[in-house]
Amino acid sequence: MQDKAMLMIPGPTPVPESVLLSLAKHPIGHRSGEFSQIMAEITAGLKWLHQTKNDVLILAASGTGAMEAGIINVLSAGDLVVVGCNGKFGDRWGEVCDAYGLKTERITAPWGKPLDPDSFRQVLEADTDKTIKAVIITHSETSTGVINDLETINRYVKAHGALIIVDAVTSLGATNVPVDDWGLDIVGSGSQKGYMMPPGLAFVSVSEKAWAAYQTATLPKYYLDLGKYRKDAQKNTTPFTPPVNLFYSLHTALTIMQREGLEAIFARHQRLQSATRAAIKAMNFALFAEDGCASPAITAVVPQGIDAETVRSLMKKRFDIALAGGQDHLKGEIFRIGHLGFVGDRDILAAIAALEAVVYELGYKNFSLGAGVAAAAQCMG
């Protein structure tokens, strides 16, 4: 049926109608007083969402742009950086470091497993000369549905004194990321995830400790020079032409989020995660991430005996529901169900019901029809 598409992927995520409609407003001058007023309200909302008094800067970029900006603004060529790699995006941050001539020590875990905080402790405690300048962690690994123990790893980083740079692209707005309470130095995120709006904006939270490092960082930068954004943000403006209509939608989305409240947002995502995982278990499929390290934003499923891409294709063809596929070596091995942003109980129940119909049609009979929906519903009471 036309115009009934349903996004159940980890980004872009569904967008509320009011956020979409805000995109249709006439643009205004980005040097006008009207834009400055919107910018001031957006900045206050971003600090609320990040639970911080730090600068939260806005880039016209993706989450990768936020992370690249965070890395290059506080480091110099030849600096030693520890990078946690247990999925595609942890690997990506290592590649960014390589591209800028940073020395990296990768701490790895198999895809689908969490990073071991004790591995970080050992590496950091052994660095008695304090040569490690930063530690880069992906909080919620989008490619696998694993959430890493950022709080514990961060404690070891703080004891060492290095900067911590956090990819919170699929965790911010889905689970608790208390920037000030944890003392996080750089936190990057993107608009198309928990923010409930279209792609195109990226956000970088920067601590005072990170700004001190900025003063001596020598990696090349111009458009991604966060100092420019900080200077202009203090005047409620931007150094370069912003996508004005996306600022409208961000303003609307933040208003919706503040109306719901942080605790309610986090509780909703936890409920959706529990319901999705319960449904998959009831269907006797395997979950790629174990219960203790499951992301509240996305669930990766191993559909034994069925090609994951075939499942995705039929879900789209029969029900116009988009699921995400496996990346790199996991293509065809897993599919991923996004449950972050503007997603509610109804969306999960509809997606699970459609999934049951699809796998049954494909010949998978190792479950009772309705078992997945019933298990999900029991988690929503």
From TrEMBL:
<comment type="similarity">
    <text>Belongs to the class-V pyridoxal-phosphate-dependent aminotransferase family.</text>
</comment>
<dbReference type="InterPro" id="IPR015422">
    <property type="entry name" value="PyrdxlP-dep_Trfase_small"/>
</dbReference>
<dbReference type="InterPro" id="IPR015424">
    <property type="entry name" value="PyrdxlP-dep_Trfase"/>
</dbReference>
<dbReference type="InterPro" id="IPR000192">
    <property type="entry name" value="Aminotrans_V_dom"/>
</dbReference>
<keyword id="KW-0808">Transferase</keyword>
<keyword id="KW-0032">Aminotransferase</keyword>
<protein>
    <submittedName>
        <fullName>Alanine--glyoxylate aminotransferase family protein</fullName>
    </submittedName>
</protein>
<dbReference type="InterPro" id="IPR015421">
    <property type="entry name" value="PyrdxlP-dep_Trfase_major"/>
</dbReference>
<dbReference type="GO" id="GO:0008483">
    <property type="term" value="F:transaminase activity"/>
</dbReference>
<dbReference type="InterPro" id="IPR024169">
    <property type="entry name" value="SP_NH2Trfase/AEP_transaminase"/>
</dbReference>
<feature type="domain" description="Aminotransferase class V">
    <location>
        <begin position="28"/>
        <end position="327"/>
    </location>
</feature>
<dbReference type="InterPro" id="IPR020578">
    <property type="entry name" value="Aminotrans_V_PyrdxlP_BS"/>
</dbReference>
<dbReference type="Pfam" id="PF00266">
    <property type="entry name" value="Aminotran_5"/>
</dbReference>
<keyword id="KW-0663">Pyridoxal phosphate</keyword>
